Amino acid sequence: MKKDHEQIKLQLEQKLKELEERSERLENRLSQPGEADSGENAIFHENDEVLAGLNDVTIHDIHEIRLALDRIAHGKYGICVECGKAIAKARLTALPFTGTCVDCAT
């Protein structure tokens, strides 16, 4: 494994841990039934839609990071999963868990 891929792997593993913890907190919050009083319950759950959307994005990012870690483990990191060409270093720096080059992403 390339030395720079080892550093990326460590960063991705740290980000994965953070996202898994965030998702767990969000899921715990969303699973709370709230108060019996419907008025208080409405206020309590007012932001549930936003929190659910945030959790969906978090789960998606967790999945993408796991795929990137798998590509690192199999020596395929930095190679576009669509066309097989190298992904630009600038793109990997901006989106370290991307699996596609700019051309295939559009």
Describe the protein in words:
This protein is mainly alpha-helical. The protein has one domain. Helices cover 67% and strands 0% of the residues. It contains five helices and no strands. Helix 1 runs antiparallel to helix 3. It is elongated. The relative contact order is 0.14. The mean pLDDT is 89.
Précis, in short:
This protein is an all-alpha fold and 106 residues long.
Descriptors:
67% helix; mainly alpha; 106 residues; single chain; elongated
Strand content: under 5%
Q: Which stretches are poorly predicted, pLDDT < 50 over at least 5 residues? A: none
So what's the overall shape? elongated
* Distance between the first and last residues' Cα: 29 Å
Determine the oligomeric state from the structure: single chain
Taking all Cα atoms into account, the compactness measure Rg is: 18 Å
Overall mean pLDDT: 89
Total tally of structural domains: 1
Number of strands: 0
Main beta-sheet annotation = none
The secondary-structure class comes to mainly alpha
Q: Helical segment tally?
A: 5
Q: Helix share of residues?
A: 55-70%
From N to C, what is the helix and strand string?
HHHHH
